[in-house]
Specification:
By secondary structure, the protein is α/β, with parallel strands linked by helices. The protein is built from 9 helices and 10 strands. The protein is globular, with a radius of gyration of 18 Å.
Length: 302
């Protein structure tokens, strides 16, 4: 069981005994919160408040050797580059087991985050006068961003190299999924879909979603064929055979590129530029405008 490391927070920590306690304590100011949500789990949330109607929600990917502590936040530098309110959230499932490196923000039997996080974010919207969310994350955090953005009409998911079906992996190479299913939900990989949504391709099938997606994918990443291809095909579109930048549907833009090796994130300069253009400048969601943005982003990443 992981222990809370307060050095991971930017602001003094406000401890909350339950969610209602959090709703009472959150104010229009930058704050860090650690909320007890089960006997062993805490939901750690950090708000950098800038008084804006838009807010960027930052969801982290897997723990790495450089980032092993709990809470596992991402985007500290990004939050300083964005002139909107930012909300960083750590996955509470890490408190269940020190060996957990990834949980996709999908929760556990004791605290189903797929169910509760939209409620929590709606409460934050009311207190901070937020009208629209932009979700951002890569890999597991990208998977979570796609899921939670689907719950907020008009929101945007900005993702890179995300998983789109968390059980669609060889069992011998991805034991993390079996461990997660067993310890978080007391079930098997094959029955995990009975507890939570595991397949975002089915969730988005048909392309009738009310949110927008900006999806960045490395062509050389194994997730390109395993995750991006079935997600694109769920919209009734053939997966591009080469590099591609353009609209897959009215609300889904794909940038299929090779600006990093394999599953690595885009170059930091490129990523921050993209976020600034979308979040700060509110670039038009059109093929022409987004193509122009990514042409510049590719140049910055060289």
């Amino acid at each position: 069981m992981s222990k809370l490391d307060i050095s991971q927070f930017q602001y003094p920590v406000v401890y909350c005994n339950h969610l209602k306690d959090f709703y009472r304590k959150i104010k229009n100011k930058s704050s860090s919160f650690s909320i007890k949500v089960s006997p062993v789990q805490r939901l750690d949330v950090e708000v950098t408040y800038k008084g804006t109607s838009d807010a960027l929600v930052l969801l982290a990917g897997a723990k790495t050797k450089k980032r092993m502590k709990t809470p596992n936040f991402s985007g500290k530098l990004i939050s300083k580059s964005i002139d909107k309110t930012t909300i960083r959230i750590s996955d509470p499932v890490f408190y269940l087991n020190d060996d957990f490196k990834l949980g996709w923000y999908f929760g556990s039997e004791e605290f189903n985050l797929q169910k509760f996080l939209p409620v929590i974010l709606n409460n934050i919207k009311g207190v901070l006068n937020i009208s629209n969310y932009i979700f951002f994350g890569g890999s597991g955090g990208g998977c979570a961003s796609l899921y939670f953005s689907s719950k907020f009409e008009g929101s945007t998911a900005i993702v890179f190299n995300p998983q789109t079906n968390i059980v669609f992996y060889p069992a011998d190479g991805f034991k993390v999924i079996d461990k997660y299913a067993s310890e978080a939900f007391g079930t098997t990989r094959g029955d995990l879909h009975k507890k939570i949504v595991v397949d975002l391709c089915k969730l988005y099938a048909g392309g009738n979603q009310k949110n927008k997606i900006i999806y960045m994918q490395n062509k050389t990443d194994s997730h390109s064929i395993r995750d991006c291809k079935p997600f694109v095909e769920a919209f009734g579109v053939e997966y591009p055979k080469t590099f591609f930048s353009g609209l897959i549907s009215e609300n889904f833009y794909l940038h299929l590129t090779d600006w990093s090796k394999g599953h690595q994130p885009p170059p930091r300069e490129s990523l921050i530029y993209v976020l600034k253009k979308i979040v700060n400048d509110k670039v038009e969601f059109s093929e022409e405008s987004l193509n122009s943005m990514f042409e510049r982003a590719e140049f910055l990443g060289v």
